[in-house]
Design brief:
The complex is a heterodimer of chains A (151) and B (182).
Chain A: E1 3-4, H1 5-8, E2 12-15, E3 21-31, E4 36-42, E5 49-52, E6 56-59, E7 63-66, H2 77-84, E8 94-97, E9 102-111, E10 118-123, E11 126-129, E12 133-136, E13 140-143
Parallel strand pairs in A: 2-7, 8-13
Antiparallel strand pairs in A: 1-9, 2-3, 3-4, 4-5, 6-7, 8-9, 9-10, 10-11, 12-13
Chain B: H1 3-6, E1 10-13, E2 19-29, E3 34-41, E4 49-55, E5 59-62, E6 67-69, H2 83-86, E7 98-101, E8 106-115, E9 123-129, E10 135-139, E11 145-146, E12 150-153, H3 165-178
Parallel strand pairs in B: 1-6, 7-12
Antiparallel strand pairs in B: 1-2, 2-3, 3-4, 5-6, 7-8, 8-9, 9-10, 11-12
Classes of the chains: A mainly beta (151), B mainly beta (182).
Chain lengths: 151, 182
């Protein structure tokens, strides 16, 4: 079963060791080259922390389980900081083809909760495979020329 | 699309998805019939003229919504750019030039450059303001004589004046075939 960024946003993050509620899922940082979720951003603003996907022991329908509170860490580097600030959030982001034409706005992103592999991008009334992604940044998600809009 | 439609477009990295600059103006080489580069403005709060330029060779694609480049290293200082990009000749701006046929008829004044869609900047025609008023598009041969004040085109160009960019796109190949250039 696939999960999606939109439905997982706001889901609680819980420590498996202490059962403590550690916050809520706010954003996802995607490794485009690997086509996987690199880390999950927990909380917003100055309290935002990252959990690497490897530290997620179970991405469930009701809670995201992580080993313990130590799995949460501050952002390291510009890209992670941008992710923690929500600037890399793919939801609502414009999508451009590599030829510089707009495809639409991303409504949702589906992924496999067992592996973190990003599967599909829902853009307006289309669903396009995530392996067409070439880049994801503060301004746009860039997909390859196979997704060129029909003029 | 026309050169003026490129002005103001964001410059976006394919592999980063970031808008690293904005097009200020096109740098055009009329003899070569192509864009040789773009001058840039900065994006965001610190907008204003950027010192860097984008040589045409580093352009991945020019689209309706963005100019795409591989990554930020495509933007270079003028000193590191090819000469016609880093130090473009100021007397080669064809905008405002009179278009004369070899027979001495004026077809109008150049108002804009028409680019081949999907190319990295091949200029295939000019938008002209006709002597009688109104706009039209003329196709260009691959090579052209340019003086700085006027440009001279073959007589046959007169038969290939079109009302819009779509018509121009269809006319370019026929026109060049007539000139025996293809």
């Amino acid at each position: 079963m696939s999960d999606s960024f939109r439905s997982a946003t706001g889901r609680k993050v819980v420590s498996r060791a202490s059962a403590a509620d550690l916050g809520m899922v706010s954003y996802f940082l995607v490794d485009v080259g690997q086509r996987r979720i690199a880390s999950v951003v927990v909380g917003r603003g100055k309290k935002a922390r990252l959990v690497d996907w490897a530290q997620v022991s179970g991405f469930g329908p009701d809670a995201v389980m992580v080993s313990d509170e130590g799995a949460l860490r501050p952002a390291a580097g510009d890209r992670e900081q941008a992710a923690a600030d929500g600037k890399l959030d793919m939801l609502g982001k414009r999508t451009l083809t590599e030829r510089g034409n707009k495809v639409g706005t991303i409504g949702d992103v589906t992924f496999d909760p067992a592996t973190g592999v990003v599967e599909m991008l829902q853009i307006s009334d289309r669903t396009i495979p995530a392996d067409t992604m070439l880049g994801s940044g503060t301004y746009a998600v860039v997909v390859d020329a196979s997704q060129e809009p029909v003029p | 699309m026309t050169a003026s439609q490129i002005n103001g477009l964001p410059v976006v990295t394919v592999h980063g998805g970031d808008d690293v600059a904005e097009v200020r103006d096109v740098i055009y080489n009329p003899e070569a019939g192509r864009l040789v580069g773009l001058t840039l403005n900065k994006r965001g709060f610190f907008s204003g003229r950027s010192r860097e330029v984008l040589p045409a060779e580093a352009i991945h694609a020019i689209g309706r919504d963005a100019v795409m480049i591989a990554d930020e290293s495509s933007l270079v200082a003028p000193a590191d750019a090819p000469d016609d990009v880093g130090h473009p000749a100021t007397d080669r701006n064809v905008i405002g030039n009179d278009v004369l046929t070899e027979g001495g008829t004026s077809l109008g004044v150049v108002r804009d450059l028409a680019l081949l869609v999907g190319s990295a900047g091949e200029v295939v025609g000019y938008q002209i303001e006709k002597p009688a008023g109104g706009h039209g598009y003329i196709p260009l041969p691959a090579q052209l004589a340019v003086s700085g004040a006027a440009l001279v085109v073959p007589d046959v160009t007169q038969e290939f004046i079109r009302d819009d960019l779509v018509g121009l796109g269809a006319a370019v190949d026929d026109f060049r075939a007539r000139l025996g250039m293809q």
